[in-house]
Amino acid sequence: MKIRTLIGAGAIGLASIAAAYAHGGATGIVKERMDAMGAMGDIVKSLSAMMRGETAYDANAVRDGAETIRRHAGEALTGLFPEGSGGEPSEARAEIWSNWDEFAAMAAQLETLAEGLGRAADNGLMHGGGQPVPGGMMGGSSGMMGGGSGMMGGGTSMMGSANTMMGGTAPMMGRGGGFDAAALAAMPADGVFNMVAQSCSACHTKFRLEKN
């Protein structure tokens, strides 16, 4: 299934990111943010097999993992990137500080997505596992990322013009253009998890240095 393919790709990417952040030599605020990134990467890795249906679904584990990500996102995340904290051994791009508004928007979106994931935990998986999703939301239609525009293209709106859930009945975006946690709470947990993984991957693609 397409959503499982996306989940697998996002989890693999974040697992490699977590491994990269585990390198030594960092101290102070740089080490703190590497530890935070590593913690989030570990959560995504631990939940990915569950979301793909390879291990038993555990709503409590989803809630706990989502809360860990939420605590490290938003202002908690941006607070780990004070100006002047780039350079070796940090892997933060200078674009974080030159394009701070976009970076902060991505951090805020991750916080909302993580909250939504925790609230969606009892919904189970789209195609079995956990409890059925009320109203059969998302159906069997195409992937979670809409037309592929928005955050994954470098903007701050991950869903682009696809601002409704696949059924077209509930708004995905809040009034301020950000994700709406209440709408996310009605989705299958694996759908929201995929969005969390893609959000992390998109931010790292734009704001993390690739090192040989």
Indicate the proportion of strand residues: under 5%
Largest sheet: none
Number of E-type strands: 0
How many independent structural domains? 1
Low-confidence stretches: 15-23, 131-171
Please specify the SSE layout and strand pairing:
Layout (H helix, E strand, L loop, with lengths): L1 H20 L6 H24 L7 H14 L1 H5 L16 H4 L1 H21 L60 H4 L4 H19 L5
Helix pairs in contact: 1-2, 1-8, 2-3, 3-6, 6-8
What does this structure look like?
With 212 residues, the protein is mainly α. The protein has one domain (2-82, 90-134, 149-159, 171-207). 52% of the residues lie in helices and 0% in strands. The chain is built from 8 helices and no strands. The protein has helices spanning 2-21, 28-51, 59-72, 74-78, 95-98, 100-120, 181-184, 189-207. α1 runs antiparallel to α2. It starts with a helix and ends in a 5-residue tail after the last helix.
